[in-house]
Design a protein that fits this description.
Distance between the termini: 19 Å
Structural class: alpha+beta
Helix content: 25-40%
Oligomer: single chain
Radius of gyration: 21 Å
Order of helices and strands: HHHEEEHHHHHHEEEHEEHEEEEE
Strand order of the largest sheet: 6-5-4-7-13
Largest sheet: 5 strands, antiparallel
Strand content: 15-25%
């Protein structure tokens, strides 16, 4: 799996350089670390890469302190419910940190699938090693190493939640700022606050497209008014998109650029695993396993687990998938490149 430095959007001429971490920079760093996670490596390199990716994800998405990550135990992690139970410094002090469903799923997949066994805990290691590895990632992605630190990742997560409209008191609760919470003028019931925090972080995405793939562009093929763009996820899934040549130029797409592809659930077909390979050559075909199945009002909603902890959702007429019986079946999802909506980053 290639781990070349990703191409980030260039600022406009004369524009000041961005201050602090940016969403594009964080997306580049996360993909770079995930590509290393899935790249073939000797066993002595495999565990450190998995551990670093896990630590980064907890810094980036859970806003934990390094010392809190080092205190985690096996019973601290509940990926099914998307919760971290973070032990405090004192006896019997714990706080619950909710994770988004997509992040919890990725973490749970790596946790359970690491060389066929669960990851060893604790993640205790030399904090200076974590700093060196984060600096290496920053240099590879064209980020300022002085900004790509555990402290800045935690700070950025707090700013994200504030920008999403979360009250400051709840952001303090998420980050474990107990002193700040006690000084808050806002009084709230602790259980109600926890429920609201989980609802805001674990709620449905605002986009109506239920399927999101992120990866690095591997090839671009202009075709007159149209162009085919192929990109690979960190776990090696290839997705092809068909866009206009105008969009190709305006997005600045070229090999190495990081893109996200969204596909509506209604545009995805589900076939038996043996038949998915017979679809037309130009269609996207990805193998998976049925995770959940629900039928209602003549339609069926199928959730399919893909490689790399990704989850696809398809909504089809129930009669079209009456061969589906229960979770665990191997299937293939099929969708047109024209159904993929591309964005950069």
């Amino acid at each position: 799996m290639p781990t070349a430095a990703p191409q980030l959007p260039c600022p406009a001429p004369g524009a000041p350089p961005p201050r602090g971490l940016t969403d594009a920079g964080l997306a580049a760093a996360e993909l770079w670390l995930e590509e290393r996670l899935y790249a073939k490596a000797q066993p002595r390199l495999r565990h450190p890469r998995v551990r670093l990716w896990f630590i980064f994800m907890l810094l980036r998405h859970a806003g934990l302190r390094l010392v809190e990550i080092f205190r985690l135990r096996g019973d601290s992690l509940d990926f099914g419910r998307g919760l971290l139970r973070v032990p405090g410094s004192g006896e019997g002090t714990t706080r619950e940190v909710p994770l988004s469903p997509s992040v919890a799923r990725k973490l749970g997949t790596v946790w359970a699938g690491w060389e066929g066994r669960e990851l060893p805990l604790p993640f205790l290691c030399d904090a200076s090693r974590v700093r060196r590895n984060l600096a290496q990632c920053a240099r590879a992605c064209g980020l300022g190493p002085e900004l790509f630190t555990a402290r800045e990742l935690r700070r950025h997560r707090g700013l994200e939640l504030v920008a999403a409209g979360l009250p400051p008191a709840l952001v303090d609760m998420f980050l474990g700022r107990e002193a700040a919470e006690k000084k808050s003028l806002v009084r709230f019931d602790a259980d109600a606050a926890k429920a609201l925090l989980r609802e805001r972080i674990q709620g449905h995405a605002r986009s109506s497209a239920r399927n999101h793939f992120r990866g690095r562009v591997t090839r671009v093929r202009p075709m007159g008014l149209l162009a085919d763009v192929a990109f690979a996820t960190a776990s090696g899934l290839e997705v092809r998109a068909r866009i206009t040549s105008r969009s190709l130029r305006s997005l600045g797409l070229a090999p190495g650029v990081i893109v996200s592809g969204a596909v509506k659930a209604l545009w995805i077909e589900v076939h038996p695993a043996a038949n998915a390979g017979t679809a037309a050559e130009e269609l996207n075909r990805l193998p998976g396993i049925v995770d959940a199945l629900r039928r209602e009002d003549g339609f069926a909603e199928i959730l399919i687990s893909l490689d790399g902890g990704l989850l696809a959702c398809a909504v089809r007429p129930a009669c079209e998938v009456d061969w589906l019986r229960e979770p665990g079946q191997k299937v293939g999802i099929v969708f047109s490149p024209a159904a993929v909506i591309l964005t950069v980053g």
